[in-house]
Hints:
Elements: E1 4-8, H1 12-24, E2 28-32, H2 35-44, E3 49-52, H3 61-70, E4 79-83, H4 88-96, E5 101-104, H5 109-119
Helix pairs in contact: 2-3
Amino acid sequence: xAPYVLLVEDSRTQALRFQLELQRCGARVDxxxxxxxxxxxxxxxxxxxxxxxxxxxxxxxYTLCQRLKEERDTAAVPVIMLTHRxxxxxxxxxxxxxxxxxxPKDEFAEHNLIESLRALGVLQRT
Length: 126
C-alpha cells in the first residue's frame, strides 16, 4: 500500500508543488492549510509521515509538532519541517520541538524532502 503523507502548508501554490512531487514518488497525500486542521487530520487518521511549514495560521508549526509528539497516536509519526526559515535559531527550534528533519524551501527542497522520507523509511527508492 502506498505511504500516506499529511502535508500541512498554508500556501496553496507550495502545497500543490510538494503534493505533486510526493505523489510522483508514490505517496498518497492529504493537505491541511493550517495547524489546527493538520492536528485534527493527524488525530483522525495518523499518517506515515507529516510534512509541515513553520509559519502556519491558527497554530504555528513548532506548536503543532510539539502537540503531535505529545499525543500517543502521533508521537512516533516522523515530522519534517519544510520552511523558508533557514537560520540556525529556527532550525534548532524546529528540532527541539520534535521534528525529525528540518528542510529549507530552496531549489533543492523537493529532492531533500524525498531523500529525507526515504531515509526515514517512509518512501521506497525507485
